[in-house]
Amino acid sequence: EVQLVESGGGLVQPGSSLKLSCVASGFTFSSSNMHWIRQVPKKGLEWIAFIYYDGAHNYQADSVKGRFTISRDNSKNTLNLEMNSLRSEDTAMYYCAKYGRVTSLYYTMDAWGQGTSVTVSS
Amino acid sequence: DIVMTQSPTSMSTSVGDRVTMNCKASQNVGSNVDWYQEKTGQSPKLLIYKASNRYTGVPDRFTGSGSGTDFTFTISNMQAEDLAMYYCMQSNSYPFTFGSGTRLEI
Fold first, then answer.
1. pLDDT tens digits, one per residue of A64-115
2. Is B106 exposed, middle or buried (0-12, 13-18, 19+ CB in 10 A)?
3. pLDDT in tens, B48-70
4. Which among A44, A106, A115 has CB closest to B43?
5. How far is CA B106 from the centre of its chain?
6. Engineering a disulfide at A49: which of A36, A42, A85, B13 sits with its beta carbon 3.0 to 4.6 angstroms away?
7. Distance between CA atoms of B13 and A20, rounded to whole angstroms?
8. B42 contacts in A (CB within 8 Å)?
9. How far apart are alpha carbons A12 and B34 in whole angstroms?
10. Contact B46 A95 (CB under 8 A)
11. β-strands A78-83, A18-25: how paired?
């Protein structure tokens, strides 16, 4: 069974840093591309970052570019999100998601973790 | 960025109803649209991928259709356990973008 377990969230002050992690099991993590998505309380979903299976390439949303860094440690089946210069608008539930291949040519976010909550407030 | 305009924002439904919601993309996204269900206190779950394909284990009362800029998601026989938020998402180009969601209520 695919499992994704996020951790590292909490209450932090504006301008501070936080590192989120997502531990994967039940699939070959080192062969899987991965995403981070966030959800502002009672609002919609926002894609924020993507990383290839080998970590060679990644993409971020403009809203976090230059502040957030996505990385992975395939030896530990772990996806990371380092967040710097946090702002109140970064307050959200953060999810990691597996980007799985559902057909020979199509990939989709086929499994999500339960999320870890980040609150940025003074 | 591609904007996904989802409608309606909410719908009042009854068990047995046929429920339809829509997503309109601000530019052509081909068939690269997925639909997710989010129940209260849970993470989103994939229901439909590539516009019209039901994911493994998803009941056949859930269907999707469309291509280009206009997409539709339908529940043919609403069940109580289908009360949730539903989101479309385009994966045609980065940044991936979601619709604002449709809340189904009784």
1. 999 999 999 999 999 999 999 999 999 999 999 999 999 888 999 999 999 9
2. exposed
3. 999 999 999 999 999 999 999 99
4. A115
5. 18
6. A36
7. 38
8. 114
9. 34
10. no
11. antiparallel
Structure tokens at A63: 């809203």
Q: Give B-chain residues touching A95 at CB under 8 angstroms.
A: 43-44
pLDDT of res. A61: 96
Q: Which two tokens stand for residue A121?
A: 């407030």
The residue among B51, B61, B34 whose CA lies nearest residue A110 is B34
Beta strand A10-12 pairing with A116-120: parallel
Angle (nearest 5°) at CA B35 between B83 and B75:
45
Amino acid symbol at A50? F
Q: On the CB side of A3, how many CA atoms lie within 13 Å of its CA?
A: 5
